[in-house]
Amino acid sequence: MKKGKKRIVVALGGNALGNTPQEQISQVRFAAEIIADLVAEGHEIVIGHGNGPQVGIINAAMNYAAVNGPCTPYMPFPECGAMSQGFIGYHLQQALQQSFLKRGLEKNVVSVVTQVLVDGTDHAFGLPTKPIGSFYTKEEAQEIQKGKGYTFMEDAGRGYRRVVPSPLPKRIIELSAIRKMIQSGLIVIAVGGGGIPVVETENGLRGIDAVIDKDKSSSRLAQELKADMLIILTAVDQVYINFNKPGQKALEEISIAEAKKYIAEGQFAETSILPKVVAAVSFVSGKPGRVTVIADLDDAKAALEEKAGTIIK
Fold first, then answer.
1. Taking 70 as the threshold, does the pLDDT of residue 15 lie above it?
2. Residues that are catalytic
3. Whole-number CA gyration radius for the chain
4. Number of helices and strands (H, E) in the chain?
5. Which residues contact 20 (CB under 8 A, 6 or more apart)?
């Protein structure tokens, strides 16, 4: 890598990518332009992405088809996660390739269907917290909960969403392949939706019903790849304390110690900002000089220059 350039893991939030395929195509084109600019400047970019809305929609559609269609088999949740990696990666690949062509960059993009090892005894399996799918009113959520037994939680004042277990990522199964692809000059899209959660069994790896937080998996990927920077792009401009309360305050730059203090105080919503701050602290704590920025997708370029979002270092 050229002097002064950085290896950066960019984590795109599932909600920042829209809620329909049409919205997603539009959003990823915007994201691709920003990422292509970073590549044109000589930075080495690896992309992770969320899938909360997308995997929920796929799972709901497949369940509906299995119940109401005579020829549609039941589709397990891990397979729904793999589908979401494929269709989000497909949109990102197309958009990035078009953006590179416009700039005269000879770069190839590849999506890696990524498995991530989790601990089958992780306490998260008894306490689902990861939001997936669409937003509902309280009444709608209660009705679905009665009929299907799903667990719902209020999500940062935006409505109610189904929640599933979110175990910690232990190991990225395809890490060696990802490293080789980066070394060969490919732009890699990996750990989509946090990766497909798998556990080790006597017969090999087995998928399990859960969604790993994509920011935590992106943080682990960034650490394993010895990245210089982790940029978490989402649908909020900055991290706030006392959010939606008297004394609300945007955080421009905080230290690891300050971030841990705010986490201990319960300042961050468990279904939205908390996993991002935890992921940021994990990455930055690994080595001096590392930086995480949590920012709005629109502010990505300024976030790279540490002029937007919330900077943790």
1. no
2. 14-15, 130, 214, 276
3. 19
4. 9, 17
5. none
